[in-house]
């Protein structure tokens, strides 16, 4: 096996036509209107100082955004930026499977700020559907087990708990109370028992 020397994608920035770039379906990051306006002002004054990160889908020659959706939105929403940049965006390309791209998106977002909890829950669901374990999610998304559990609970899907071991639970049952313990000469009452019988 030949070990190729790692080279960061940022050393291979390419200009991609805006129309070939598409958002991903899983980004949980939201930016409030004042911050979007600030991002526009920043790009207007300084230009694009950071590329967006994309995955190239060769079958349809599209570039799916991994990081940089809001920088992409500035070009989509502001004609002056689109025209000044001649419809081209600086792109850094990564070549990773979907689950690794999702993890990259989350790491980029978490390093910068907040993200939408419902969308984050859906990502946890999708990663589980792709066969990723809680341990993988914890390692690659920088989440502790409690955070993963809370996000799973939001979706309410039992499938997300398939690799969780549960202990024995209390179950209701009937028990006879002898006459000396009851005032009515021996009554039935509901009790809770532990076990699998």
- The level 1 CATH classification of the domain at 10-115 is Alpha Beta
* Count of helical regions: 7
Output the CATH topology of the domain at 10-115. Answer: Conserved hypothetical protein from pyrococcus furiosus pfu- 392566-001, ParB domain
CATH homologous superfamily identity of the domain at 10-115? Conserved hypothetical protein from pyrococcus furiosus pfu- 392566-001, ParB domain
Assembly classification? single chain
Order of helices and strands: EEHEEHHEHHHHEE
Strand order of the largest sheet: 1-5-3-4-2
The gyration radius over C-alpha positions equals 26 Å
Q: Name the beta content range.
A: 15-25%
In angstroms, what separates the terminal alpha carbons? 55 Å
Largest sheet: 5 strands, mixed
Share of helical residues:
25-40%
CATH architectural type of the domain at 10-115: Alpha-Beta Complex
- Counting DSSP E segments of at least 2 residues, the number of strands comes to 7
Low-pLDDT stretches are: 191-197
Q: What structural category characterises the helix and strand content?
A: alpha/beta
Shape: globular
Q: What do the pLDDT scores average to?
A: 79
């Amino acid at each position: 096996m030949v070990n190729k020397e790692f080279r960061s994608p940022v050393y291979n920035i390419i200009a991609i036509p805006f129309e070939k770039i598409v958002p991903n379906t899983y980004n949980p990051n939201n930016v409030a209107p004042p911050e979007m306006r600030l991002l526009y002002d920043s790009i207007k004054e300084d230009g694009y100082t950071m590329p967006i990160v994309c995955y190239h889908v060769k079958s349809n020659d599209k570039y799916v955004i991994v990081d940089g959706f809001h920088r992409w939105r500035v070009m989509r929403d502001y004609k002056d930026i689109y025209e000044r940049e001649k419809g081209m965006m600086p792109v850094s390309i990564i070549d990773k499977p979907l689950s690794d791209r999702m993890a990259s998106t989350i790491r980029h977002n978490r390093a910068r700020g907040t993200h939408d909890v419902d969308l984050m829950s859906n990502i946890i669901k999708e990663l589980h559907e792709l066969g990723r374990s809680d341990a993988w999610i914890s390692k690659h998304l920088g989440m502790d087990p409690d955070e993963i559990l809370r996000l799973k609970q939001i979706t309410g899907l039992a499938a997300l708990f398939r690799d969780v071991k549960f202990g024995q639970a209390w179950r209701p049952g009937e028990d006879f109370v002898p006459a000396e313990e009851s005032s009515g000469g021996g009554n039935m009452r509901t009790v809770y028992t532990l076990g699998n019988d």
